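User: Before I run my own analysis I want an independent prediction to cross-check against. Here's the chain; please return only the structure tokens and, at the end, one sentence I can use as a sanity check.
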Amino acid sequence: MVLTRLKAESERKLAKQICKVVLDHFEKQYSKELGDSWNTVRDILTSPSCWQHAVLLNRFNYPFDLEKDLHFKGYHTLFQGSLPYYPKSMKCYLGRIPDRMPSERHQMGSLKKYYLLNAASVLPVLALELQDGEKVLDLCAAPGGKSVALLQCAYPGYLHCNEYDSLRLRWLRQTLESFIPQSLVNEIKVSELDGREMGDAEPETFDKVLVDAPCSNDRSWLFSSDSQKAACRISHRRKLPVLQIELLSNMVPVDMTDMARTCSRDFTFAPTGQEGGLLVIPEKGKAWGPMYVAKLKKSWTA
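Assistant: Structure tokens:
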């Protein structure tokens, strides 16, 4: 009874923190885009106690004892080996119920054992199907979780992590130092370029490119304490599609139906009406997303 009462009090406090400006905007936009699914998505987004975090184990400092504990608590690995491309070296565990593990602190000279993330963030990494020796670019790399995930999948011949924002760049560097051995960090190039200029800076260099394009980051802004900044953010988010398109060119979509079918146990998808993309939406017990994932290949005929 005490725990129930504390949870209820916590929910009431969080409800007071929800930014009405942002929520009203979401109501107008997402009720049209998601239809009846929006009610469920809204309930999850406005209830942090329902949020879940996946646990990505670090193969460079593997936590065997933690893995045993996760099994004991009922966690299971993402896809459980059913996806055609799922490297054995990547271990990402999901829980059935909301349960956030404490984040590890950054310590110089000591590698962290796990990375907490939204499980939907792993989908674009797996869609890339990275192989040993390939040259790969993480175009908008901060805070670094997807770069870490890439290195759990394979040993690229060349990894270039780029981040245009100087503050986020420092965060990226710290993440790499926290999870990747120094000998391997030295093999990674980190830059601070405008992603739209990367094609001219390093033309025809990469086998594969991961683009976690600047997005609205809806979950965090929903709890903004500054309604004026939130309103500015809403205005700014309208410009994001233009920037996202400018980061890409001469691309054609690749069908992701097989991935959607394979991972439907762990993720919920909303129809997009578009070819080749997946829209992950959260629901209770599978509170991942919202996130849009697309796999593209270069069109050499354009």
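Sanity check: Residues 105 and 256 are 36 Å apart (CA to CA).
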